[in-house]
User: Fold this.
Amino acid sequence: SQTIHQWPATLVQPVGSPLSLECTVEGTSNPNLYWYRQAAGRGLQLLFYSVGIGQISSEVPQNLSASRPQDRQFILSSKKLLLSDSGFYLCAWTRASLNEKLFFGSGTQLSVL
Amino acid sequence: RKEVEQDPGPFNVPEGATVAFNCTYSNSASQSFFWYRQDCRKEPKLLMSVYSSGNEDGRFTAQLNRASQYISLLIRDSKLSDSATYLCVVIPGSGTYKYIFGTGTRLKVLA
Assistant:
């Protein structure tokens, strides 16, 4: 069966510090991968998605970036965090075809202070 | 207009009640639709897909109205454990891998 791992579960970072969140999927190959952010009391905002190694689609211009160095690894990064980057970050995956079900990792609660 | 819109609620209902949520979408070419459930500070979990002819899973019924561009979720015989936020998800068009979420509808089932 397929599983998705996301870490860390919680993170507290000062403003201006860098960020790296990692997500890996097991039990499948060539998944589509996604990063979402959920601000407190708000809906899920699609940040990035990837349909293959090195292929990244960015949905929202911001100081975040994403990379997919390996087939089942998706990384969310920032060089300098802003207060507004605080939120619940969720990685998700689907099978590599259209209209598939989306499955989420357990999320990272990021607080930028 | 937002791509996917939901009434944020909260819907406060007694145990055993029937409750319905609607979700509207703006892109008439949208292909696939889902309902997810999210508990506080947890990841969303798939509740059910929404099929064109409507579909049922136990106490839950999902329907699609393409003409009016909305989907609905009906929960019968509400349980305390149904208290959560229900998220509507739409794939906005053909040939896209994007999944757009509504802001969610909060449900509180009261004893």
